[in-house]
Amino acid sequence: MGRITGRDPSLLRRINSTVVLRALRAAAGSPTLTDLVQATGLSRPTVEGVVEGLTTAGLVAEATGGPADSRRQGRPARRYRFRAEAGHLLGIEVGPHRVSMVLADLGGRLLGTTDRAVSEGADADERLDRVRTAVSDLLRRCEVARSTLRAVGVGSPGIVTADGTVRLCTALPGWTGLPLGERLRRSFRCPVLVENDANAAVLAEHWKGSAVGCDDAVMVLAGLSPGAGSLIGGRLHRGYGGAAGEIGALHLLGREAFPERLLSTTGEPLHPLDEAAVARVFTLARDGDEQARQAMDRFIQRLVHDVAALVLALDPELVVVGGWAAGLDGVLDPLRDELARYCLRPPRVALSVLGEAAVATGALRLALDHVEEQLFALEGAMRG
């Protein structure tokens, strides 16, 4: 890497472009050149040159229909805006029973969504084909060209490495060892970022859900094998090998804590162990069936113990509960009671407000973060 100096003109141009672009995107309304000079502290000739360059690059346009200044005579000052439509972002969830995705512009404004059912027993090729088909349908329906995609985020069950390989996954057939990022990059001409589904979900809740404004939070996706994503100081905590938050493995510490036994209403392990079977148990419990109620209580008890272990380790301000548990009557009170018993400082507990959209929304946030780092972060300019 070459030596960086404060007199490097290309570096200064990139920094100035970043500063102006950030000011444009953050502005309320359409600022004038004078507004941008005041917001950035740069000279007027510098701002004029940067705006001209950003306009040529397609990231800035002259605004029309902006407010007129009644104190000025003659031609009104030109106003400018960030062109959020200059590119698009895609967030994808790959789950056991469905694939879902959300499409947005560079400002994060939602343009369209879609879901496609997929068999729980589908192999990796079939599942990825379903993703590709759904993407094509969504882009066509929203009249968005694939070439305008700037980044794609993907949320998937399992332990995911930095290069997008699924190191371990028990939820999807043929998923362990799958180079998911590499496989999906063949379908796009832009970066593809792969993240664990619970990690994606906590990013979504921090962006648009129950954890807005909270930088120390845990998001629990409660299913047959619960997982959790954690924010520490506003940053996603993945752990050394990407396995942070895999609380579903805690049942290995207790021989009788397997979900098929916890959820049994007959004394025999619940089979088949899938979402439909578990939903039937919960429905019976709500209808007053005593055996089902005991099974649901056991499931909640295991969940709260798993969450308590994570809370003791991380001391978050907030625990957000999603997945199946978001639909369980009375899950918050026993969770709060158990956390009060086991934790030195019990956190706040809230249900997810994003529901089934949490993982895909978090995947979209991954894509948006990547683009913002390129366009708006001074660190990105320094690395250039």
What does this structure look like?
- There is one protein chain.
- It contains twelve helices and 14 strands.
- With 384 residues, it is of the alpha/beta class.
- The chain folds into three domains: 74 residues, Winged helix-like DNA-binding domain superfamily/Winged helix DNA-binding domain (Arc Repressor Mutant, subunit A); 133 residues, 2-Layer Sandwich (Nucleotidyltransferase, domain 5); 140 residues, Nucleotidyltransferase, domain 5 (2-Layer Sandwich), CATH 3.30.420.40.
- The strands form four sheets. It has a five-stranded mixed β-sheet.
- α6 crosses α11, α8 packs across α9 and α9 packs across α10.
- The longest helix has 25 residues.
